[in-house]
């Protein structure tokens, strides 16, 4: 399978910013559904933001305009720019991708519908 490598996490104070990156030497981000998920302590993996193959973007309600997903196909990199972070954003963040694009009967944002995953990068926000 394809290898995705997450980076860019760190520790910041509330109100701070981080930009996460997801790179791959063999996965072509253009034309594929890609997404970011996160898993906080004691929580299930939850959807954060996605970019469909046609460029449409969707965010979870908690994003509230603070995060921006973007991809640079020339660099084979997916980004998640995060601003105005708060303590509730503390989690391990994972990029994800799938080879079969689609809506999956409305369940397009479920993690089980993404087959390729990065190893995760930790984001810790102190209040």
Secondary-structure content class: mainly beta
Mind summarizing the main beta sheet?
Answer: 7 strands, mixed
Roughly what fraction of the amino acids lie in strands?
35-45%
- The residue fraction in helices comes out at under 10%
Question: What is the number of E strands?
Answer: 11
Radius of gyration: 14 Å
Low-confidence blocks of residues: none
Oligomer: single chain
> Helical segment tally?
0
Mean pLDDT: 94
Which SSEs are present, and which pair or pack?
Elements: E1 5-7, E2 10-13, E3 18-23, E4 34-39, E5 46-51, E6 57-59, E7 67-72, E8 77-82, E9 91-97, E10 116-117, E11 121-126
Parallel strand pairs: 2-11
Antiparallel strand pairs: 1-3, 3-8, 4-5, 4-9, 5-6, 7-8, 9-10, 9-11
Explain this structure.
With 127 residues, the protein is mainly beta. It is 0% helix and 43% strand. It has no helices and 11 strands. Strands 2, 4, 5, 6, 9, 10 and 11 form a 7-stranded mixed beta sheet that branches. It has a 4-stranded antiparallel beta sheet with strand order 1-3-8-7, with no helix packed on it. The chain is globular, with a radius of gyration of 14 Å. The termini are far apart. The model has no long low-confidence stretch (mean pLDDT 94).
